[in-house]
Amino acid sequence: MNIDLTxxxxxxxEHFDVECQLDMDVFQLGTEAYPILNKxxxxxxxxNVMGQKLxxxxxxxxxxxxxxxxxLEDVEITLPLTIDYEFQIxxxxxxxxxxxxxSFFTEDYRELQPDEMIHDEILVNWPDKVLCRENCxxxxxxxxxxxxxxxxxxxxxxxDPRMAKFQDIFNEFKEV
Length: 176
Ligand SMILES: [Zn+2]
Ligand SMILES: [Zn+2]
Fold this sequence. Notes:
Strand content: 25-35%
Structural class: alpha+beta
Order of helices and strands: EHEEEEEEEEHH
Shape: elongated
Number of domains: 2
Strand order of the largest sheet: 2-5-6-7-8
Bound molecules: zinc ion
Number of strands: 9
């Protein structure tokens, strides 16, 4: 669903609340696709300020399924998203930003694409680390067993001689 911006661009000092519903079912990040679990409608507030500025504001949250970084089990994460943009208007048209290209407008800057906007917000809020639990034990590098479920009993203590050397250097460094 696209939002036609004509009304807000042509009506000085008017505010519009637009109900948005996401079309996308997955969040695509490179070659990965993460399912979106909730798609509740949210409101975008569009304001024309003195025919000079267009303000776009809104708040929502999105819940996605993402694999745990360590054990790869699915984890549900909820990202609170805050939309807050300001654009210049001249002669009832958005002035494209010289430094930044916004993917959520159509090419002629007359329509807004909420899916693209939410995609960008998810990207900005993407967590550095996703863990199913604080002390997730991960998977066994030898046999692939999920170690949260059971211990496979593999011998996983492989001391790489090169790593041992680094450890020595690190310890010396600490003592200085
Ligand atoms: Zn895990
Ligand atoms: Zn194992």
